[in-house]
Each structure stands twice: as structure tokens, then as C-alpha cells.
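Late entry, written up from scratch paper. The run itself happened at the end of the previous shift, but nothing got recorded in the book at the time, so transcribing now.
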Amino acid sequence: MDNPTNLILIDSDSRRRAAISHALSACRIHVEPFENIAELAAAWPRNGVILIHDGASSISELIEKMALHGTWFPVVAFSEAPTAGRIVEAILEGAIDYVAWPISAEELNATLVRAIDRAENVGHAKLREVMARSRIDRLTRREREVLNGVASGLSNRLIGEKLAISPRTVEIHRANMLNKLGATHTSEAIRIAIEASIVI
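Output as recorded:
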């Protein structure tokens, strides 16, 4: 099977990195190996699929780095004998697929093709979600409550009644919330909240 794209390999185990690179070279898959996420962040490739060894918080850290960089790569996680629960968690954190190591080069190549197909559908949406969540994280608890009120279509007076604060205080929180989100209009703040999945 022809190589669909570059494979960006992130794995702190040098022996396993070498074994994966060697195995995939037989299938003419170009591998760019990195020891860790920081090393990748210092030299972002132009394109590719990321194959990352699933260590503690490695996937969520990688997704955050991609959000900061504004670049999205489909992520395939791998580990030895993963549990079903861990696979589900990794997918929820942003991985497109999960494979158990060891895996044949042919199977991995097929996984990469699937990952590229899936990434076209969910990749940009996932990046927008992560970027929106990083903006929402800047808000105070009260600013989030005001955002939820705004997203529910409530006026400043009704938000104030609900939160037991004055409409003027709501206005101040609303202005601060818009500023922190980098939103010029309320509708933009609501869109960010929807993308961050805090409003349905």
C-alpha cells in the first residue's frame, strides 16, 4: 500500500521508536521520530499523522499544544495491551484512533488512511473545541455564569435576578467576559461557548 502521508512518531522509548521506524520503512512510510511533545513543538512538520505512545496525559497535552500552535494533525495513540476504558478516554481526549503495539506495518498503514479520512470530518471541529475551551478557562466562575445566562437568552436584569447581583454588575462581568474571550459581540461569545461544548 502506498504511503498516505508522513508519520510523526512521538515516543520516549528510543528502542521502540527505532523498531517502529524500521518496520514502517519497509512499507515506504516516512517516519519523523520525536522523543517528546516539546521536541515536536520546536519543529512543527507541515503535515502528517501523529502516532503517540499513550503515556500519562500525553494526548491532552498534545492537543493543547496543537491548539496553541493553531495546527491540527490527526492523532493515533498506541500502547501495549490497552484497556477498553483507556481507549475510550484517549478518543474523548482527542485521538482519532487507537492501536495496540506491536502492530504490523500493513495494519498501521491502514489505520493511518482511516485516521486521515476521519480527520477531514472531525479534526478542525476538535481544534476549534480545544481553542474555545482554552478561552473559556480564562473566565471566572461568575463570568461563566453570566455567559450561560447570555447563551440562554436572558437579559442583564434577569441574569442579575438569577445570580442575586445588580444589572450593572452583570454588565461589568459581561464586558470582562467578552474581553477575555476576544469576542466583539455577544453572538460570538455564544458561538465560543457552543464550540467549547459548555452550551448545548
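The first strand starts at residue 7 and ends at 10.
(Scratch paper discarded after transcription.)
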